[in-house]
Amino acid sequence: MLVARTFAVDETQALAGALAPLLRAGDLLLLSGDLGAGKTAFTQGLGRGLGVTDPITSPTFTLANEYDGARLRVHHLDVYRMESMAEVFDVDLPDLLDDDAVVVIEWGEAIVASVPADYLAVELLLGDGDDDRVLHLRAVGPSWARRWAYVESATSPWRGGDSAPC
Ligand code: ADP
Ligand code: MG
Questions:
Q1: Is the Cβ atom of 5 under 6 angstroms away from ligand 1?
Q2: What pLDDT sits at residue 164?
Q3: φ, ψ at 64 (rounded to 5°)
Q4: Atom 5 of ligand 1 has which residue's CA nearest to it?
C-alpha cells in the first residue's frame, strides 16, 4: 500500500491526474471514504488527466455518468448512497469495462464482493486540517500489481520525504 497526502483539493486532483497516463481500457478504480473525503474531486482530476472536458459532477440522480476523454471514456458511478445491492447489479459492470473506458466507482465499503478482483483501491481519509487528506492506494489483483512501480513514481510528489508538498 502506498500512502499519499494532499493539502488542497487541487492537489488531490493533480495526484489523480498523474495516474491518468497509466490507465488502460478496462481499468477499474474503487474510491472509498466518507462523504466529503474527495472521491468526486479525485475523479475530476483523473478525468482531466484523460482529457475529459465536460465537468464531472456527482452522479447523484443517475447511477452512472459517462464522459468522453481524449483516449478513453470514463464511466463514473456513485454507489455510496445506494440503498441495496440490487441497484448496483442493475449496472452491467462487465459491459462498462469492455467499452474502451475506465470505470471509477465511488462507494462506502460494503460491496467489494460484487466487483472483479482486479482494481486500484483508493481510500480517502480526512486529515487534521480542513483541507488535509490522506490517500491509501492499493493494488488489488494482477493488472495494478504489475504497474505498481509506475504508480509509485507518479504519486511520489505527494508522498513523504523531501518531495512532500508543504
Ligand atoms: P466525496 O465525493 O468523497 O463525497 P467530494 O469530492 O464531493 O467528496 O468533496 C470533497 C470536498 O472537500 C470538496 O468540497 C473539496 O473542495 C474539499 N477538499 C478540501 N481539501 C481537499 C483535499 N485535499 N482533497 C480533496 N477534497 C478536498
Ligand atoms: Mg462524491
A1: no
A2: 42
A3: -140, 135
A4: 38
